[in-house]
Amino acid sequence: MTFLTQANFPRLWLFFQNHIGGTKDKQVLALSARENRCKILEIGCSVGNIADAFRPLKNILYTGIDIDSSAIGTAHMRFTKTQFCFLETSVEEHAKSGMRYDYILIAGMLHHVDDATALSILKNTRLLAGQNTIVNIFDPTRLLAPILRTCTGFTSLNRGNTCGVSLC
Q1: Nearest 5°: CA angle at 148, between 49 and 101?
Q2: pLDDT truncated to tens, each residue of the chain (168 aa)?
């Protein structure tokens, strides 16, 4: 197991994400598709590095979920006295909550999991989506496109340097 990980050093990981990990670009992408949606879910939120983009916005309800307890702990410390909620939970467990969101973000995390886990995340994301939800998925890999095509419910796939999908 690697010693220098997000779980072991979440603040150091945040530093590197902010300086060489493309956080600013990810934040721009995250905001670009929101279309004034207010009930936001970020899957794989880590320490809240993408959530920072939503701080200046008024009247939003942001929920970030991640399975890494130390990352969620750091997110809690970074977002005290805000309307941001960070939960240590899996997508599968959160889908059982009955919550529905109008904007769901998966920002650069699917390439960290195997195909079966990615499919499970996508199928459970569908359960968290309302009727007119925008699901914004971007990941730095072209290998993601075939996985997304196999997941029912995703109706359009936009490709460029990153992959993006939307639900009907």
Answers
A1: 50
A2: 566 566 677 677 667 666 666 677 888 888 988 888 999 999 999 999 999 999 999 899 999 999 999 889 999 999 988 889 999 999 999 999 999 999 999 988 887 888 889 889 999 999 999 888 999 988 765 555 555 545 534 444 444 333 444 443
